[in-house]
Amino acid sequence: MRHGLHCSHAGDNLLTRVDPRVKLISGLSLLTLVNSSRGFLFPLLVGGVALATCLAMGVRLRLLAVRFAEPLFIAVMIVLLKLFFVGSEPLFSLHLAGVDLVGHRDGLREGLLIAARISGAVALVATVGFSTPFTELMAALSWLRVPRGFIEVALFAWRYLFVLFDDAQVLYAAQKNRLGYAGYRRGLRSFGTLAGALVIKAFDNSQQITTAMVQRGYDGNLPLLKHKPFRAVEVTGSLAAIFVMAALWQF
Questions:
Q1: Do both 90 and 151 map to the same domain?
Q2: Is 76 helix (H, G, I), strand (E, B) or coil?
Q3: Can you spell out the DSSP letters for 165-222?
Q4: Can you give the pLDDT at residue 212?
Q5: Which of 60, 128, 145, 198 has the most neighbouring CB atoms within 10 Å?
């Protein structure tokens, strides 16, 4: 399980070798186009291309389904809310459990537009995430002048999240072997004990890590935040792709 958590990005391929700063800027540009689109086709086109890219990188369908489950649920709920509670052009009517529901054509259009934007945006973010290791993504954000404190906290949280996950698995296994989850009340009590133990362990680990880093001369500068020069081929290809998508966005 820990290996699966660490390997949340695709293996070595053409897209993973592209400079993360280029991918981040391209992703943000396309994300802006998707969110400002006035029609359904452009967000769906971007989402389809992004999903095809993920599949070409070897991302498993099951992992994609997990990543898209929550955003798609939100998109469906927005479509339903817009359909039945927003609009002035009646499309159909339903009578359910003594309640009359009227679907609106203009509300459906608004809901589908928002759902298309959500799908395209999530697919873009997933493509960037699968093709870029977390540390490289944080380095790209530092180049964009994201506050250094945020970058450092995110990096340390990402690193020690897996340590806490391993500790949680050990504690959970010990509780389960002692029938700690045999019953609803006992399970809640055991879960509370597990959560409390993890909080205390995280606090103790933070103090130990801070002391160890200061003793080793940590001055706030992380080597991974240093960048190599841009490559002309990657920048040119990225600009060409953005211009093509911008031209499609106009239609």
A1: no
A2: helix
A3: HHHHHHHHHHHHHTTTTSSHHHHHHHHHHHHHHHHHHHHHHHHHHHHHHHHTT--S--
A4: 82
A5: 128
- Between CA 20 and CA 41 the distance in angstroms is 28
Cβ–Cβ under 8 Å, residues 123 and 51: yes
At how many degrees (to 10) do helices 184-215 and 148-177 cross?
140
Task: State whether the Cα torsion 53-59-60-63 is positive or negative.
Answer: negative
Length of the chain: 251
pTM of the shown model? 0.76
Per-residue model confidence as pLDDT tens digits over 74-111? 999 999 999 888 878 888 888 777 777 888 888 899 99
Phi and psi based region of residue 39 (left: phi greater than 0; alpha: psi -120 to 50; beta: remaining): beta
Based on the fold, state whether residues 138 and 118 are members of the same structural domain. no
Per the structure, the count of domains in the chain is: 2
Q: What is the pLDDT of residues 51-74, one digit of tens each?
A: 999 998 888 889 889 889 999 999
In a domain, residue 2? The reply is no
Tell me the one-letter amino acid at 58: G
For the packed helices 105-131 and 61-85, what is the interaxial angle rounded to 10 degrees? 160
